[in-house]
Structure formats: structure tokens, C-alpha cells
Amino acid sequence: MKQELMEQIEGYDTIRQEIEISRKFGNDFSLEKGQVAEYVNRLHPSQIKLCVSKIIEETVSTKTIRLTVVNGYLPPFQAGQYIALSVEVDKVRTGRAYSISSSPRQTGYYDITVRRVKNGRVSNFLLDEVKVGDLLQSSGPQGAFHYHPILHQKEMVCLAGGSGITPFMSMIREITDRGLQRTVHLFYGSRTLDDMIFHQELSQLSEQFATINYIPVIEDPGPEYKGKTGYITAEVIKETLGGLAAKSFFVCGPQAMYTFCLPELDKLGINKWKIKQEMFGTPVNIYEYKGWPSEIKAKDRFTVRVNGSTSFETSAGEALLVALEDNGLVVPSLCRSGECSQCRIKLVSGKVFEPEGTPVRKSDRKYGYIHACVSYPLENLEILL
Ligand SMILES: Cc1cc2nc3c(=O)[nH]c(=O)nc-3n(C[C@H](O)[C@H](O)[C@H](O)COP(=O)(O)OP(=O)(O)OC[C@H]3O[C@@H](n4cnc5c(N)ncnc54)[C@H](O)[C@@H]3O)c2cc1C
Ligand code: FES
Predict the structure, then answer these.
(1) pLDDT, tens digit, for every residue of 70-109?
(2) Ligand 2 centroid to residue 142 C-alpha, Å
(3) Domain containing 48 — which CATH number?
(4) Do 44 and 88 touch, CB atoms closer than 8 A?
(5) Which long-range contacts (CB under 8 A, 24 or more apart) does 314-317 make?
(6) Which CATH number fits the domain that encloses residue 223?
(7) CB 117, CB 182: distance < 8 Å
(8) 1 or 221: whose pLDDT is higher?
(9) How confident is the model at residue 180 (pLDDT cuts 50, 70, 90)?
(10) Is residue 93 domain-shared with residue 109, that is, in the same domain?
């Protein structure tokens, strides 16, 4: 703006004087012009190159992979956040999210703890192929599944199933490492005792710290077992905690965990807004979801036309994102569970199935954008990437 015009703005003289005083006493950031983007990128890089520095066997089906950064610094993260690895498996470039299980206080490495999924493309690759010294490409830390001092109570009730223990492990390690005055009541559901990840460490921390209350709930523990058995039900939660007021609830694990645990929390009268959730992975057996049209079978085939040129065939039971990747078309993705909107694509024509509650923005809905990771073709489609 021209000087004469600026002088006509009410209060301009006062602002100019303040700028001069600020400069005089060292608040002049104009010298750092151009450095802000560099700083922001250091804290929130979109991509990081990581090196596998150690692999720890946790259970028969689970390993912790320790990752150090190749160049520069590891960006800081909030306990509960995840990174999205980008890998090439069987000539297909794809990605998967893994929560960081180490404490944010550990600035030298990230641990991710991976459980084998039957026939799973990436979990089997990470567990069987990856070795110390390998390089992996990853996103920076992502996600909102973490404690927030304004939104959450200092007493957290955490319900974990299977590999869903990982974000809670990071939160608990942070509390004990830093001596934070925050209490975690962790209900960890597992089929057997041998399947439980971090069981020994959690039992020890629970004995050592009054702030950690660890309650394993085992479906099939064998006759000698003296702890809680069965599932994480409303009764188990109530008899362990007594009062439920002034507590925040966090739920994490595979989809079966939600189907079971959310109605149990509902029975206890816990408001939905008090519950923070993270679903690990894409829906299993999408055709069993509420609203799936009964006339469409998972194996029904449809054609997908992309950007008005390429076409391929895929099945109704396959998420569009997976079908695109299988056909060599890489779409940016992070969570792959419908939450982050990185994989949004435009649906020009045709119909897709999306599980109830998929958080698509109103404006995206209006202009025909969908989340490819949780969209399943119900007709021939035309899309724009
Ligand atoms: C935010 C976030 C954090 C995550 N953190 C972790 C973590 O710390 N540790 C970890 O092991 N996993 C974690 N996951 C799950 C992970 O991203 C992958 O989904 C998982 O490793 C399976 O990938 P895959 O390629 O082996 O299986 P895919 O090839 O993707 O799937 C194969 C089959 O298994 C089913 N399936 C996929 N995932 C699961 C699952 N978790 N349980 C049961 N069946 C499944 C699929 O529906 C499909 O039928 C996280 C997921 C999210 C969204
Ligand atoms: S990858 Fe996050 S919404 Fe699809």
C-alpha cells in the first residue's frame, strides 16, 4: 500500500511508533524472513526418511521396529499420534498407519509395534522382510488421538484391543517418564495372555506408579488365571472404576473393538463427545455393514474410469484406494480409515458405498468428493484424481 494511503488509516501513527519501538528493543523478526517455512518444515515435515535401527520381538505375532532419522531431526509428536509408512510390496506402492509406541520424550527414535494380520500386505512385509539397516519412507507424525489439556480430564479411561495398545503405551511411557500428574486406567482386551503386547512392562509400571492402573481382560486365559476374564463390558468397567464422573474415555483397536465396546460405554451413560476413538485399519467385511445393499455381492465386478482415460475393473468389496494402488495409481493417503481426508477424489458418476459416519466435509459432499480409502463401488464409476 502506498505511504500516503497508509497515513490516512486511523491509528496508523500509533502502529508505526510501536513498530519502531519493537525494532529498537529487538522484536524485529523481519531479519528472519524466509526462515519460518524452514522451521515449520522441521517440526511438521510431510515426509521423513527413516532407518531401522533395532527390531524387538514382543509376542509370537508382534514386533517393535525402532526407527531413527536418516538426516536432520525427528519431528516431535504427541503421545497417541501415528506415522504413515509408504512401502512397495509385490511391486505395489502403498501405505499404512502405525501409532508411535515409544515416549515423546525419546527424541532419538520412534518405535512402531506391528502385529501380523492374516494375509495382510504390509504387516507381513514389515514382520518378515524388513531388517536392521533398511530405509523406510514415512509421513511426519499425524492424528488427533492424543490427550488435550483443555478438552480432556486428567483421569483417562483407555480401552484397547490387540495392536490398539500402541498409542496408549506411548501415553503411559510419557506419563511415567515425565512424572505427569495424569491418571490412566487401561483396560486391555486380548484373546490369550500370550497375545498381549507389553504385558510385563505394563504390569510393572502399574505396580510402580499410582497414576497407572492396568486391567488386562482376557477372553481365554486358562484355569489358573486370577484376573478379569471375558470382554471389556460395562460391568467390568463399573466394578473397577466405581464412579465415572470427571473422566475422559479413549478407545483404540480393530473394528470389532468398537462394535463391542461403544455399546458398553453407552450402557454406562457415557456421552459420545466424551469418547475419543481411533480405528486401526479399514473395515473388515464391508458387505456386513449397515446399509450395504443386499443385491450387491462383494465379488460383483465394476469398471472404474480414471481422469477420462485409464480404466480398470474391481470388486465391490475392495476399497477404491486399494484398487487404484493395485492398478499403479498412487493416491496420497495417511490414515486409510476415512479420518484424515488425504485420499479424497472426485466422483464424477456412479455410486459408492461408504460406512455410516464417514467424516466427509459438507463442501466435499456437495461437490462430489469421496474418501477413496472407505468408498466401495456399487456401480461402474467415473472418477477424477
Ligand atoms: C491410525 C492408525 C494406527 C495404527 N497403528 C497400528 C499399530 O500401532 N500396530 C499395528 O499392528 N497396526 C496398526 N494399524 C493398522 C495398520 O495400519 C494396518 O491396517 C495393519 O497393519 C494391516 O495392514 P496389512 O497391509 O497387513 O493388511 P491389509 O492387506 O490392509 O488387509 C488384509 C485384510 O485384513 C483386514 N485387516 C486390516 N487391518 C486389520 C486389523 N488391524 N485387524 C484385523 N483385520 C485387519 C483387512 O480388512 C483385509 O481384509 C493402525 C491403523 C491406523 C488407522
Ligand atoms: S487416507 Fe485418511 S481418509 Fe483416506
Answers:
(1) 988 899 999 999 999 999 999 999 999 999 999 999 999 9
(2) 12
(3) 2.40.30.10
(4) no
(5) 314/377, 316/287, 316/353, 316/376, 316/377, 316/378, 317/285, 317/286, 317/287, 317/376
(6) 3.40.50.80
(7) no
(8) 221
(9) very high
(10) yes
Say which residue the cell 514382520 belongs to: 127
Residues 249 and 307 both lie in one domain: no
Domain count across the chain: 3
Structural domain including 241 reads 155-279
Is residue 49 classed as helix, strand or coil in its secondary structure?
strand
Among candidate residues 283, 237, 288, 242, the one with its CA nearest the CA of residue 262: 237
**pLDDT, tens only, 321-346:** 999 999 999 999 999 999 899 999 99
CATH of the domain at 303: 3.10.20.30
Q: Is 259 left (phi over 0), alpha (psi -120 to 50) or beta?
A: alpha
Residue pair 135/162 in contact (Cβ under 8 Å)? The answer is: no
Range 195-221 average pLDDT = 96
Do residues 257 and 316 both lie within one domain? no
Q: What local confidence, expressed as pLDDT, does residue 64 receive?
A: 98
* Ligand 2 neighbours (beta carbon < 6 A): 333-336, 338-343, 371, 373
Percentage of the chain beyond pLDDT 90 is: 74
Same domain membership, residue 319 and residue 215? no
Map grid coordinates 486391555 to a residue. 188
Rounded to two decimals, the pTM is: 0.90
- Per-residue model confidence (pLDDT) at position 60: 96
Site to substitute for ligand 1 among 81, 93, 98, most atoms within 8 A of C-beta? 98
Q: What's the pLDDT tens digit per position in 122-154? A: 999 999 999 999 999 999 999 999 999 999 999
Strand partners, 312: 304
Which residues are near ligand 1 (CB < 6 Å)?
82, 96-99, 112-115, 117, 119-124, 143, 163, 166, 254, 278, 280-282, 284, 335-337
Both 202 and 266 in one domain: the answer is yes
Query: Are residues 274 and 161 part of one domain?
Result: yes
Question: Do 270 and 324 reside in the same domain of the chain?
Answer: no
Length of the chain as a residue count: 385
